[in-house]
Specification:
Length: 54
């Protein structure tokens, strides 16, 4: 499991936790997140997220 961080606002998507607000079950890998996903804080696209080492 990895975490992905929005480069614009710093919001983090945690694969282990998923994102219930956006229909992403816990354990949903970033690769399986729909391309239509946008940052819930600032609205940027998936391409503007970077992997965070934990
Ligand atoms: Zn953001």
């Amino acid at each position: 499991m990895k975490q992905w961080q929005c480069v614009v606002c710093g919001w983090i998507y945690d694969e282990a936790a998923g994102d219930a607000d956006h229909g992403l079950a816990p354990g949903t890998r970033w690769a399986d997140v729909p391309e239509s996903f946008v940052c819930p804080e600032c609205g940027v696209a998936k391409a503007d997220f970077v992997m965070v080492e934990i």
